[in-house]
Design brief:
alpha/beta; 3 domains; two-stranded parallel sheet; 6 helices; elongated
């Protein structure tokens, strides 16, 4: 059996893919995590170029688009919040100036004057026509191990065209360099074995 795990640097976990030998009956997943797991066959239970390309194009890319949309939405919300705060601060400053000017001229300051003062001078919330400095980049970075299924030039070109850069770790180095294994999976497995993902029952699946 082969398992493919994908985790974003932000901590977001993508769908997990399990690949079984073609002679095994696929287990049935009935719990609430079923939508986070996919099961499939290959002739030897290994990852292949065809399966890897299918996972990237028809599953992972959709997940990446969701994360991109989330980051852009959060950025827009923060940008609009900052613009509103700037507008409120500018109006407060103009109102204070108006009060002082009215006092110097011996005029009475009214609520109507406060509502009207400086309306054309107060910055408005941003829209699509305004500056997008600081907007999060759509480009993503995908770090892969050096398995032969990744040796697919057409897939690498497709990823680049869709603003996904790829780093391939050298063969036989992933045990030392692979970020997910070194920084997340292994420490959790070693220090909290009871919280590990139990997949032993997959190996006990009856053959067809």
């Amino acid at each position: 059996m082969t398992a493919l795990f994908v985790v974003a640097a932000s901590g977001h976990a993508f769908r997990t893919h399990f690949i079984f030998h073609s002679s095994y009956q696929l287990p049935v997943i009935t719990d609430c995590k079923a939508e986070k797991i996919t099961l499939r066959h290959s002739e030897k239970g290994w990852m292949t170029k065809r399966i890897f390309e299918d996972i990237i194009k028809n599953d992972l890319f959709e997940e990446i688009e969701k994360v991109r949309s989330l980051h852009l939405r959060l950025w827009n919300e923060e940008r609009e919040k900052c613009a509103r705060l700037a507008a409120e601060k500018a109006k407060k400053k103009l109102v204070e100036q108006g009060r002082r000017n009215a006092q110097r001229q011996g005029l009475e300051w009214t609520e109507t004057m406060e509502e009207q003062v400086g309306l054309n001078q107060i910055p408005q919330p941003p829209n699509s026509e305004l500056d997008y400095t600081g907007r999060p980049s759509r480009r993503a970075l995908l770090i892969l191990d050096g398995h032969s299924s990744r040796n697919n030039l057409s897939l690498m070109s497709w990823l680049y065209e869709n603003e996904i850069d790829v780093i391939l770790l050298r063969s036989h180095t992933s045990a030392y360099l692979q970020p997910l294994d070194r920084c997340v999976t292994n420490p959790v497995r070693v220090t909290n074995p009871e919280h590990g993902v139990e997949i032993n029952h997959f190996d006990q699946t009856k053959k067809k």
